[in-house]
UniProtKB/TrEMBL annotation:
Belongs to the adenylate cyclase family. DacA/CdaA subfamily. It comes from the Bacteria. This is Diadenylate cyclase. Pfam families: CdaA_N, DAC. Its EC number is 2.7.7.85. It catalyses: 2 ATP = 3',3'-c-di-AMP + 2 diphosphate. The keyword Lipoprotein does not apply. It comes from Olleya namhaensis. GO terms for molecular function: adenylate cyclase activity; ATP binding; diadenylate cyclase activity. Probably a homodimer. GO terms for biological process: cAMP biosynthetic process. Keywords: ATP-binding, Cell membrane, Membrane, Nucleotide-binding, Nucleotidyltransferase, Transferase, Transmembrane, Transmembrane helix. Residues 68-235 form the DAC domain. InterPro entries: C-di-AMP_synthase, CdaA, CdaA_N, DisA, DNA_integrity_DisA_N_sf, DNA_integrity_scan_DisA_N.
């Protein structure tokens, strides 16, 4: 039973990492190929068994290459201090608990973003999820401020000494400001995305965090997860996306 439970946990976290990304299709494809291999082996189809067997024999290395970002996130999640201190291991098993809403004030964050969008005030907000972001937060100024709309607007006010860089929000607390994020240098990012947006892509590629960017040039609000842009129609849809992802 312990073996079954551990395998179930492993599959749960693998699904959690690849859910909503292109990697989920690759994962399904690998599972299909494996079941085809078992079928042709049981039917004594020697040629197909050798071909698929050769593919599966190097499958581990192929998985590391194909799922490079997901493997990084998984290892980061395993080694995160969230397990050891802040949330404890059992708090990660959210599917065993009664569903509860996120403690982060999503409405205040979105209202602040809408206000900054109307004044074309640049902003970059990172919402911490399972992966602990202390290794990134240490590049900025440590804070301990409860999230409110005026607080977020005052941080990113153009004359504020804290407006440069990103802020990290954890459980409705601004834990750091003026944070330096890893920047994605891939050329396939649309040209309309500037350095602020590349930083949002970079941090969401390396962790499971969600990043919200407000463009200083256009005032457009953008949301990023898993290194990809999340499309949304309006603030209501954005709020639903954030609430679902932060549960």
């Amino acid at each position: 039973m312990i073996d079954v439970v551990l395998v179930a946990l492993l599959l749960y976290y693998v699904y959690k990492l690849v859910k909503g990304t292109v990697a989920i299709n690759i994962f399904i494809g690998i599972v299909v190929i494996y079941f085809i291999y078992l079928t042709v082996e049981a039917l004594k189809m020697v040629l197909l068994t050798k071909i698929l067997g050769g593919f599966i024999s190097v499958g581990f290395i192929a998985l590391i290459i194909v799922f490079q970002q997901e493997v990084r996130k998984f290892l980061l999640m395993i080694g995160s201090t969230n397990f050891a201190s802040r949330r404890k291991f059992l708090s990660q098993l959210k599917f065993l608990k009664i569903e509860q809403g996120t403690s982060t004030d999503i409405d205040a964050i979105i209202s602040a973003c809408n206000k900054m969008s109307s004044t074309k005030t640049g902003a970059l907000i990172v919402l911490e999820r399972n992966n602990n972001l202390d290794f990134i937060a240490n590049t900025g100024d440590e804070m301990n401020i409860r999230v409110t709309q005026p607080i977020i607007e005052s941080i990113f006010f153009k004359n504020s000494p804290l407006h440069d860089g990103a802020i990290i929000i954890q459980d409705n607390i601004v834990k750091a400001t003026r944070v330096i994020l890893p920047v994605n240098n891939e050329k396939n990012i649309p040209q309309r995305f500037g350095l602020r947006h590349r930083a949002a892509v970079g941090v969401t590629e390396r962790t499971d965090a969600i990043a919200i960017a407000v463009s200083e040039e256009t005032g457009q609000i953008s949301c990023f997860r898993n290194g990809e842009f999340l499309p949304f129609e309006d603030s209501i849809e954005l709020a639903e996306i954030l609430k679902n992802d932060l549960e």
